[in-house]
Specification:
Distance between the termini: 31 Å
CATH superfamily: Ferritin, core subunit, four-helix bundle
Structural class: mainly alpha
Strand content: under 5%
Largest sheet: none
Helix content: over 70%
Number of helices: 5
Shape: elongated
Bound molecules: MU-OXO-diiron
Number of strands: 0
Radius of gyration: 17 Å
């Protein structure tokens, strides 16, 4: 059984994951409208992943005798100055999510809720991967700068990345 404070903390993480999904969906739409097909599919994919992160938390809260809270969400940014800004925001956002997960881990230990602590380890590992990926991509974007040919190749490569990661995910 979840304590009230752990339940509240998990519910606020549910909201963060849902907002992440919306934020990346807005980025996917922006990129699609700008003709950046690869960047767009990458962001659609990220948005779906965030929804999965949210659902995993929803199920956990309900299974442990809590009540997952589906709440109103903060509206995401829908316009961006450049595709570089998308990836800067992606990294910034993932760092914020990691901090929030770390805080949850901290609370679960304080309350000696080892089941929640164990459940959260999946998120800890996932955040390491997501931050690393966002950093790698942003480094590439910075390297390309204003080079149009570079952007063309980047957009093509990132689409490949999306296709291969979908192939590696069981059930995706
Ligand atoms: Fe669910 Fe990308 O954090």
């Amino acid at each position: 059984m979840l304590s009230k404070s752990i339940e509240a903390a998990l519910n606020s993480q549910i909201k963060i994951e849902a907002e992440s999904s919306q934020a990346y969906l807005a980025m996917a739409v922006w990129a699609e409208v700008k003709g950046l097909e690869g960047v767009s599919s990458f962001m659609y994919d990220q948005s779906n992943e965030e929804r999965e992160h949210m659902l995993k938390l929803v199920k956990f809260v309900n299974e442990r005798g809590g009540h997952a809270h589906i709440s109103e969400l903060k509206a995401p940014s829908v316009t961006f100055k450049s595709y570089k800004e998308l990836f800067e925001k992606l990294l910034e956002h993932e760092i914020f999510v990691s901090e929030s997960i770390n805080e949850l881990v901290h609370i679960s230990l304080q309350e000696k809720d080892y089941a929640t602590h164990n459940f959260l380890q999946w998120y800890v590992a996932e955040q390491i991967e997501e931050e690393a990926m966002a950093r790698t991509i942003l480094d590439k974007v910075k390297m390309i700068g204003d080079d149009k040919g570079g952007l063309y190749l980047f957009d093509r490569d990132i689409q490949q990345l999306t296709i291969s990661s979908a192939a590696e995910t069981p059930g995706a």
